[in-house]
Prior knowledge:
Elements: H1 2-21, E1 23-29, H2 37-44, H3 47-50, E2 53-59, H4 62-71, E3 76-77, H5 80-88, E4 93-100, E5 106-109, E6 123-126, H6 132-142, E7 152-155, H7 160-168, E8 174-177, H8 179-187, E9 191-195, E10 204-210, H9 211-216, H10 218-237, H11 239-246, H12 257-267, H13 281-296, H14 304-307, H15 311-325
Parallel strand pairs: 1-2, 1-3, 6-7, 6-8
Antiparallel strand pairs: 4-10, 5-8, 5-9
Amino acid sequence: MKTYRTIILAIILSFATSFARAEKILTAIPQANLNYLSIYVADAKGFFKDEGLENETVVISGPLSIAALLSGDVDFSGAGGSGMRAALKGAPLKGIYFQSEKVTFYLVADPSIKSAADLKGKKVAIGSAGDTQDRMITMFAERGGVTSKDIIRIAVGADTNTRILAIKTGNAHATTVDPGGLVFAQKEGLVSLGFLGDLFPMPFQGFVATERKIRDNPAQIKRWLKGAIRGLMFVRDRPEEAVDLGIKKLQLGKATRAMVVEGTKNYVRALPQGVPGLPSAEGIKNFLEYDIKIPLQIKDDIPPERLLQLRLVEEVKKELEASLRR
């Protein structure tokens, strides 16, 4: 009986110690959509808790998220594009991790559009001239022999429903949508012309942290990365279970479970096999070129280390790979 009580006491003390040591952190994401399902899955599966972290996920738009990161109100931000553009202007931030190796956009169109060649002289709904999606559409069209000048661009903003409506009403003929938006678009009778992530590797959905945290608390960053990457791998390998874990947290309007599952399967096409998170050298080059230099009209090359600190995710990737081999 004494031994039994001793074991129970040891278990209780172990749980109490683990709870006491858990570090509270805040992770900001720009939208509660499928692109960030992995963070909610990491929460639900206890992947952050496994690393001694008590994570809270909050939804904050890009610029506000970066302001909160710089003020210390959040620890990690998924507004990677905003963060790295701020870093280029002198903000003490660095990109530490990319969820995908490819962009997650799909090109959808009116059923009368059958191929890239059919985009000649047609109206394409974009967010704003020169943005990433505009450039990806242009590249897609060029592969069909259509030049940039042959496309008529209509700026309609980022809202997926607005873009789909523009095609349905005849105000546009094609547009880009995210993986979940593809499901809605197809249900509205639009057709998919292709997955734009297949054009070339370009890491997407970056997370940023402050230079101070990278310098002073790299161990915490590595633990957060392990939890986040495990969540991402779970989404990739077990999409239906991932949806069941995170669907109540997502803001997807009237989407049914079946639609969310289908959208998640669309999303994972952008993820590499193995342990994700560390972009290829080619991907980093494309990211700096197409997501930073061109939209900001910068002529000089940008050294990757000016915006990125990927040493920690590289270490985590190796550690996770070693654990998978055991």
